[in-house]
Design brief:
It is a single chain. The radius of gyration is 20 Å and the shape is globular. It has 334 residues and is an alpha/beta fold. It is built from 14 helices and eleven strands. It has helices at 2-16, 19-25, 54-67, 73-81, 100-113, 124-127, 134-141, 162-166, 171-178, 183-195, 214-222, 243-261, 277-286, 319-332; strands at residues 31-36, 38-40, 51-53, 69-70, 90-97, 117-121, 226-230, 267-269, 290-292, 307-308, 311-312. The two termini are 32 Å apart. The strands form three sheets. Strands 1, 4, 5, 6, 7 and 11 form a six-stranded parallel sheet that branches. Strands 8-9-10 form a three-stranded parallel sheet, with no helix packed on it. The chain has a two-stranded parallel ribbon with strand order 2-3. It folds into two domains: 23-129 and 210-332, TIM Barrel; 134-195. Helix 2 packs parallel to helix 14. The structure holds zinc ion. Zinc ion (ZN) is lined by residues 96-97, 231, 235, 271.
Length: 334
């Protein structure tokens, strides 16, 4: 009740009075990288919390365009590396996961306002156009799963893991478990569920699931406004899988994107914000220069010039609330 009052009346009034600007001015910080995911005409939180409405997205871009200098991610990083102190408050816009809806609904808005952005894509869809991100798959089938039938033996795990499976009783706990296992193990779970005749029903809401195609990528990068970065090939939590698997995820996705765009892929965003020192080194060795975290996992990363954290735009709150959160982030982010 109080929350809705704040969202409906207090936050919009605070923005009108310029509280967002006051928050920024109190801060030493001058640059922030924003993280979006999908943009669809009509979000449905029951299907996915990953998408913002087109209408809200347009308002976000108009707000950012009048409030900040919009930078290309690579330029913002280059200045950061060279200790350039920005004259204006500046933001870079990024999208994670590589939904085709970025092309259909976000790109036209960005083009109209001439705003650059970077899309971090999961490249598996370039090998298989019908690929659905693993957590979208689970969200898409969650009411149909009989959680009691999920057992270690069914998925080829040793019987000693049975205790872990006993704790999986809903989609959230299943997803939490799947963040800790390898891509092969995850695919075994998805395959088993599929074999039970259970599939996400994408009819009528393809835009919630569909990922970018090579043609869409090419058109966007040719515009000079959009940079494509890697979000790995299968969206695993990189610090939870083997080094050789992580290495493969990091370099294969880079090569696939480069084959399409012809440009070197220099930026990578860690799926689920998961990384460690070893993962960072693997990325640098693979040729990445710009590493994108969500929050810093290592305190020393605050001072490292090849990694930056990002501010996650919420798809479940109002625009004014997001704008004020952004102001607060200027104040409190390390
Ligand atoms: Zn992601």
């Amino acid at each position: 009740m109080l929350k809705s009052f704040y969202r409906a009346a207090v936050f919009p009034a605070a923005i009108r009075l310029g509280l967002d600007k006051v928050l920024r001015r109190l801060s030493e910080r001058k640059r922030i990288i924003l993280m979006y995911h999908g943009v669809v005409p009509k979000p449905d939180l029951k299907l996915s919390v990953n998408h913002l409405s087109v209408n809200d997205f347009e308002q976000h871009m108009a707000y950012l365009n009048r409030s900040f200098k919009i930078r290309k991610l690579c330029d913002l990083f280059e200045d950061y590396r060279n200790d350039v102190v920005p004259k204006d408050y500046e933001v870079a816009i990024t999208f994670d996961d590589g939904y085709a809806n970025n092309y259909h609904y976000a790109f036209p808005v960005l083009k109209q306002l001439k705003m650059p952005a970077t899309i971090f894509m999961v490249t598996k869809a370039l090998d298989n156009p019908n690929h659905i991100l693993w957590y979208d798959f689970i969200d898409g089938v969650k009411p149909q799963i009989d959680y009691k039938s999920l057992t270690a033996v069914n998925f080829g795990f040793p019987p000693s893991k049975e205790g872990v499976f006993k704790k999986i009783r809903d989609a959230e706990s299943l997803k939490a478990f799947m963040k800790l296992i390898s891509v092969i193990e995850k695919n075994r779970i998805i395959q088993w569920i599929t074999e039970q005749g259970i599939q996400p029903d994408t009819t009528g809401h393809k835009e919630f699931f569909e990922l970018l195609s090579a043609e869409q990528i090419k058109e966007m990068t040719d515009s000079g406004l959009i940079e494509i970065g890697s979000h790995t090939h299968n969206h695993p939590n990189l610090s939870e899988i083997s080094v050789s698997e992580a290495e493969q995820e990091i370099s294969y996705s880079k090569a696939l994107i480069e084959r399409i765009t012809g440009d070197a892929v220099e930026s990578i965003a860690f799926p689920d914000g998961s990384y460690n020192e070893e993962i960072k080194n693997l990325c640098i060795n693979a040729g990445y220069r710009n590493l994108l975290a969500v929050d810093y996992k290592l305190k020393s990363d605050i001072y490292k010039k090849n990694i930056l954290s990002r501010f996650c735009i919420s798809n479940t709150t109002t625009n004014e609330s997001n704008f004020l959160r952004l102001g607060v982030r200027f104040l409190f982010e390390p």
